[in-house]
Amino acid sequence: MRNAFVRELLKRAETDERIFVITPDLGFSVWEPFRERYPSRFLNAGIAEQNAVGIAAGLALAGHTVYVYSIIPFVTMRAYEQVRVDAAYMNTNVRVVGVGAGFAYGGQGPTHHGLEDVALMRALPNMTVCCPGDDIEARELTAASFDHQGPMYIRLGKSGEARVHEPETRIAIGEPIELIAGSQIAVLASGTALGRAKEWVLRMRAEADPVEAALVSVPTVKPFPSEIITKYAGQGIPIVTVEEHSVIGGLGSAAAEVLAELGGGVPLRRFGLPDAFCREVGSHSYLLERSGFHYERFQDIVRGACGQ
Q1: Strand arrangement of the beta sheet that strand 177-180 belongs to
Q2: What distance in Å separates the CA atoms of residue 308 and residue 302, rounded to the nearest whole number?
Q3: Residue 186 reports pLDDT greater than 80
Q4: How far apart, in whole angstroms, are the C-alpha atoms of residue 210 and residue 213?
Q5: What is the mean pLDDT of residues 135-164?
Q6: What pLDDT, in 10s, does the model give residues 265-299?
Q7: Most buried pick, 22, 71, 118, 206, via CB within 10 A?
């Protein structure tokens, strides 16, 4: 999805001189085509994420639409005060783009894990939070970002995410996409968890004792598409959320907030990463497995929510 984001940005920059990219010394082998084509609209700010966001806000106030691109913990947590004050409070057209969702940078240890970022970005007034699940969602949300007014956070995987949508799919900010119909339980997934969620839902539907699960992609976590909760809760269908993020503050929390304000009525279970630091180092798949992000646990949670 990272490549889809860059391709869409390159295409728009041909005709839109507002587009400006800032990177705090990241993106080698990613940003060279943009830098070579539009050198006056590309800046490597060095390892200075706070300054990068401040510069971006100034450029946005001067009429640019600015994309600040770095690894998730550095562009969100290290620069959080600047994102809060310069981007969100000032309501500027700054797009904070974090790459490496969840354990994508697992080989570099806990400092590079992106587990709390959605919670942080959701808490900021004016901030739109997008978590695309495949290259098509990344393409569509990037395209939507060009004319969106106000700050955005766009959360990307590192590479190799499975494609879920057909190439011609069109997606708007704030729009959920119902991928599989089902009457027993609704699985809501966002970001890099979407591909696994689809695989697991299909697997459960094919078992000897199948669960007819629906699958909904939720690429925009804020503003949250509350209508999808209203729909399934109104039909008495339990809900399970799936995300490669802490179970606190992300998709699951957003869904729970909507359900609570509706008055509840159906079970909701959050499937994500535990509220704990991962102190191991290893590949993406290894850390997910060690953190309980696997089919067997998902199956238990879904069947439990269904009362089986």
Answers
A1: 177-180, 213-217, 185-189, 239-246, 268-273
A2: 9
A3: yes
A4: 9
A5: 95
A6: 899 999 999 999 999 999 999 999 999 999 999 99
A7: 118
Structure tokens of 16?
A: 């839109």
DSSP letters along 179-201, please? EE--SSEEEEE-GGGHHHHHHHH
Q: What is the pTM of this model?
A: 0.96
The answer to whether residues 165 and 134 touch, using CB atoms and an 8 Å cutoff, is yes
Q: What percent of the chain has pLDDT over 90?
A: 95
As a whole number of angstroms, the distance between CA 110 and CA 279 comes to 6
CA distances from 89 to 77, 84, 92, 125 (A): 17, 6, 8, 7
User: How many CA atoms lie within 13 Å of 143's alpha carbon, on the beta-carbon side?
Assistant: 14
Q: For 163, which DSSP code?
A: P
Number of neighbours of residue 233 by Cβ within 10 angstroms: 21
Distance CA 192, CA 47 (A): 26
